[in-house]
């Protein structure tokens, strides 16, 4: 397990650690209820430097990546980001990534453990193009701010006003003596901002944000609480809710697909599925009551298997266990009751995101 750069800092604060994709993450700082409340009502700070980073350089970097992913890259403005999937020729997912286009390179921000797989996939198709892949996880780290007081914390840390940052928009800044890049990330809540930091400057920036947030109710937020927020928002995570057999449309990733771009690997499958108008199964929300079922548990309608669970969390907002899972198209209507495995416990299909 690759340790966090700030392991010592989190350890001093009494953190508990877990392995996520072969990399260390803070599971909890022992303040889960306070951290959750801060992410909803104040501001929370998450160390996401376990995520993996790949850089692409060279004259053909943009056109090469454009043909490898589901999203538009050719017309992506420098200084902005987008979310995309990489697919096999059969339309199944290799991985997902946030793509950041900078003046001199492209940066792929990926789930932990996915760097080698994505690099192997891209190198397979890199033949005559002037493009080069660089492992960059050791160079960059990511800190994530969530909550309505995010702007106030950044304003205090930067020493000036901080206008709201739209989703996937970027802004360069100097924070604690470090050149950082701020990226709007409103997937989990409307105010989120990711802070890209040179890895050597992670400690300085973490301490500066913590100090700036002292008067704003800032709480450090661990991976387990981040997962709760993710599931409540209905956002799938590769390796948990999406795997190598998942087709993006099954996981509701329409925002990751540009339907008017040129050819990319797997496009024919996506086009056929889109023309057909439905998938046989889709990711949906599920209300489990007090059933703490494990991911992978089957969902049945009578004797027929109609789906399975992928992520399960205890939601205080919902007052019960809630889950993400795949359900057959004929059983997707919210309120539909399904059996959990062999019964007798039942679950109810719910629309995403969960109402909070």
UniProtKB/TrEMBL annotation:
Keywords: Transit peptide. It comes from Myxococcus stipitatus (strain DSM 14675 / JCM 12634 / Mx s8). This is Glycine cleavage system T protein. The keyword Iron-sulfur does not apply. Residues 281-354 form the Aminomethyltransferase C-terminal domain. NCBIfam families: ygfZ_signature. The lineage of its organism: Bacteria, Pseudomonadati, Myxococcota, Myxococcia, Myxococcales. InterPro entries: GcvT/YgfZ/DmdA, GcvT/YgfZ_C, GcvT_C, GCVT_N, TrmE/GcvT-like, YgfZ/GCV_T_CS. Residues 6-261 form the GCVT N-terminal domain.
């Amino acid at each position: 397990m690759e340790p966090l750069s700030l392991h010592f800092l989190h350890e001093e604060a009494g953190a508990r650690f877990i392995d996520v994709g072969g990399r260390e993450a803070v599971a909890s700082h022992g303040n889960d209820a306070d951290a959750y409340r801060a992410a909803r009502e104040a501001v929370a700070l998450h160390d996401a430097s376990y995520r993996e980073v790949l850089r692409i350089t060279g004259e053909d970097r943009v056109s090469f990546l454009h043909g490898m992913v589901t999203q538009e890259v050719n017309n992506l403005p420098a200084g902005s980001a987008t979310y995309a999937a990489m697919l096999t020729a059969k339309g199944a997912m290799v991985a997902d990534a946030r793509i950041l286009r900078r003046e001199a390179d492209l940066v792929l921000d990926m789930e932990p453990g996915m760097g080698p797989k994505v690099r192997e996939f891209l190198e397979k198709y890199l033949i005559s193009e002037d493009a080069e892949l660089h492992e960059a996880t050791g160079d960059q780290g990511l800190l994530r701010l969530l909550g309505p007081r995010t702007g106030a914390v950044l304003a205090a840390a930067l020493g000036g006003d901080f206008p709201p940052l739209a989703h996937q928009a970027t802004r360069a800044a100097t924070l604690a003596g470090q050149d950082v890049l701020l990226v709007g990330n409103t997937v989990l809540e409307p105010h989120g901002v990711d802070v890209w930091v040179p890895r050597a400057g992670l400690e300085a920036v973490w301490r500066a944000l913590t100090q700036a947030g002292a008067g704003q109710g800032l709480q450090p937020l661990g991976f387990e609480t981040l997962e709760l927020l993710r599931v409540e928002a209905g956002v799938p995570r590769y390796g948990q809710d999406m795997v190598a057999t998942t087709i993006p449309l099954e996981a509701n990733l329409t925002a990751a697909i540009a339907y008017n771009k040129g050819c990319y690997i797997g496009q024919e499958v996506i086009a056929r599925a889109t023309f057909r108008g439905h998938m046989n199964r889709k990711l949906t929300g599920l209300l489990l009551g007090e059933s703490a079922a494990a991911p992978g548990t089957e969902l049945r309608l009578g004797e027929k298997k109609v789906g399975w669970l992928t992520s399960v969390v205890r939601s205080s907002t919902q007052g019960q266990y809630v889950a993400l899972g795949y359900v057959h198209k004929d059983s997707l209507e919210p309120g539909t009751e399904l059996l959990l495995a062999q019964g007798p416990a039942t679950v109810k299909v719910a629309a995403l995101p969960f109402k909070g």
